[in-house]
Amino acid sequence: MTKESYLKILRANLNNVPPYEADNIMQYYIEYFEEAGPANVDKVIAELGNPKQLAQRVTADYVIRDIESGNGNRTVKQKATNTWLLVLGIISSPIIALVAFVVAIVVLALIVSFFAVAVAFVVVAAVTFFAGVFTLFSSTGFGLLLIGLSLVFIALTIFMVLAAVGIIKLVELLIMFFAKRKIKK
């Protein structure tokens, strides 16, 4: 592979970073090749590795810096895209990709189930509350018990949502941790 073809592949795979950042990245690697000299092109290519994987690592590094900069104006879509880009940066080897895929499916199933249970608790709380209100007229004690039970279900709903959000934040921290370790290699 030539220096030009390597840089062309690298540039083609930097489509997930802003154009100005891609230009900076390309300038860095062009200078890197130039400093090594024409005689060391093969050595530099071997050192940098696959240009597609290098682009993934560089993109993941950019995303980490963006997240750490505290840019609070990111939308949910941008946060999800950033998380996905970090995952791609982490799973640049097939074995890690398989393990990450299985873990991602399990975590996603856990999060979805937490939200599903929370929705079920909301429905049960609403039904229990209205049943308690209507029962108040015939049996005050039982009506109050049902209303209290609906409050318990509301508390459980809040707990389930907070647990799901906590899992999401934990996953984000783990992705950041592994992405930083992967990029340092």
Characterization of this structure:
- With 185 residues, the protein is mostly helical.
- The chain folds into 2 domains: 1-92, no CATH class; 93-185.
- The chain is built from 7 helices and no strands.
- The protein has helices at 3-12, 19-36, 41-48, 51-68, 76-90, 94-135, 140-184.
- Helix 4 crosses helix 7 and helix 5 (76-90) crosses helix 7 (140-184).
- The protein is rod-shaped, with a radius of gyration of 26 Å.
- The model has no long low-confidence stretch (mean pLDDT 82).
List keywords for this structure.
7 helices; 185 residues; 2 domains; mainly alpha; rod-shaped
Quick structural summary:
With 185 residues, the protein is an all-alpha fold. The protein has helices at residues 3-12, 19-36, 41-48, 51-68, 76-90, 94-135, 140-184.
From the alpha carbons, calculate the radius of gyration and give it in angstroms. Answer: 26 Å
- Span of the ends, CA to CA: 23 Å
Strand percentage: under 5%
Quantity of strands, as a count = 0
Number of helices: 7
Q: Largest sheet, if any?
A: none
- Quaternary organisation: single chain
Q: Which residues form runs of ≥5 with pLDDT under 50?
A: none
Please outline the helices and strands.
Layout: H1 3-12, H2 19-36, H3 41-48, H4 51-68, H5 76-90, H6 94-135, H7 140-184
